[in-house]
Amino acid sequence: MARVALVTGGQRGIGAAISEALQAAGRKVVASYAGNDQAAKAFTDRTGIPCYKFDVADFDACAEAVKRIEAEVGPIEILVNNAGITRDATMKRLTREMWDAVIDTNLGSCYNMCKLTWDGMTARKFGRIVNIGSINGQAGQYGQVNYAAAKSGIHGFTKALALEGARSQVTVNAIAPGYVDTEMVRAVPPDVLEKIIARIPVGRLGRAQDIARGVVFLTADDADFITGSTLSINGGQHMY
Ligand SMILES: NC(=O)c1ccc[n+]([C@@H]2O[C@H](COP(=O)([O-])OP(=O)(O)OC[C@H]3O[C@@H](n4cnc5c(N)ncnc54)[C@H](OP(=O)(O)O)[C@@H]3O)[C@@H](O)[C@H]2O)c1
After folding, report:
1. Domain boundaries, the chain
2. Contact predicate 81/130, CB 8 Å
3. What is the pLDDT along the chain (240 residues), one digit of tens a residue?
4. How far apart are CA 31 and CA 53, in angstroms?
5. For the whole prediction, is pTM greater than 0.70?
6. Which of 52, 85, 112, 230 maximizes ligand 1 atoms within 8 Å of its Cβ, making it the mutation to test the pocket?
7. Secondary structure string (H, E, C) spanning 74-104
8. Ligand 1 binding pocket includes 9 (Cβ within 6 Å)
9. Which residue CA neighbors atom 45 of ligand 1 most closely?
10. Known catalytic residue at 179
11. Under CATH, what is the fold of the domain 4-233?
12. Among candidate residues 8, 37, 42, 70, the one with its CA nearest the CA of residue 215
């Protein structure tokens, strides 16, 4: 039986490439999203991958969704915490609301989704969790105190949870993407983007598929000795 993989934010951007790569690897994939019904419908029409709409920052909504997915599709054995947002501003303009939105969506969601799938994974003695961090959680970034804090938090979360899952064959890893060509990065002003690309040793932005191949690698059935690690996929921009 194909294992069920849930990719949050899995119907567009990096998440869509992850969903499709996991499907190609023989997984039964389910994607989640926040509100972009149009993208979700187009994605399902194209790939056959069902999309579930819920807010990953809302614990009760996650609980309801996990229950529904497990009843309709099967127990979640692979979880990719990919959903994320930016609300960039320097400290001078960074409101409490912007701080909370980014922390709750990017980091709180990892707690919500891991908490709700953890008992099942540990009881079944199999689980693969991949949390999508960021180069900016490793290196910091001007105007991204909230985002860098959330992503940096993901890297610590990953290592600590990996220790708890190790004896139950539940692996927990992170990927720290560099700059990838998605809507999130297309929102960066062109002159700033040009400067960013100039600093990437391979000389281009990442493709969503570059990240997806890392997820397929970390979630393979025989990847059970890889846990607590952070895979940097960034074109050589920043190495940890
Ligand atoms: N792009 C980059 O260069 C880059 C670099 C490093 C790390 N990352 C990380 O990689 C991940 C994906 O980034 P991306 O560039 O593909 O982003 P994106 O194109 O903006 O897509 C974000 C996805 O997350 C979903 N989402 C956002 N808030 C949500 C919420 N509250 N509940 C449920 N789903 C939610 C969105 O759903 P809707 O479509 O419904 O809005 C969408 O599917 C993020 O965690 C991001 O921080 C990206």
Report:
1. 4-233
2. yes
3. 899 999 999 999 999 999 999 999 999 999 999 999 999 999 999 999 999 999 999 999 999 999 999 999 999 999 999 999 999 999 999 999 999 999 999 999 999 999 999 999 999 999 999 999 999 999 999 999 999 999 999 999 999 999 999 999 999 999 999 999 998 888 888 998 999 899 999 999 999 999 999 999 999 999 999 999 999 999 999 765
4. 9
5. yes
6. 85
7. CCEEEEEECCCCCCCECCCCCCHHHHHHHHH
8. yes
9. 84
10. no
11. Rossmann fold (3.40.50)
12. 8
Active-site hit among 52, 147, 179, 240: 147
State the maximum Cα–Cα separation within the chain, in Å, rounded to a whole number: 53
- Please work out whether the CB of residue 185 comes within 6 Å of at least one atom of ligand 1: yes
The CB density around residue 28, as the number of other CB atoms within 10 Å, is 18
Half-sphere exposure (Cβ direction) of 95: Cα atoms closer than 13 Å: 4
Say if ligand 1 is within 6 A of residue 232 CB: no
Instruction: Measure the CA dihedral 56/57/58/64, to 10°.
Output: 10
**127 pocket-lining for ligand 1 (C-beta < 6 Å):** no
In terms of Cα–Cα distance, which of 108, 135, 88 is closest to 231?
Answer: 135
84 alpha carbon – ligand 1 mean position (Å) = 4
The verdict on the CB of residue 161 being under 6 Å from ligand 1 is no
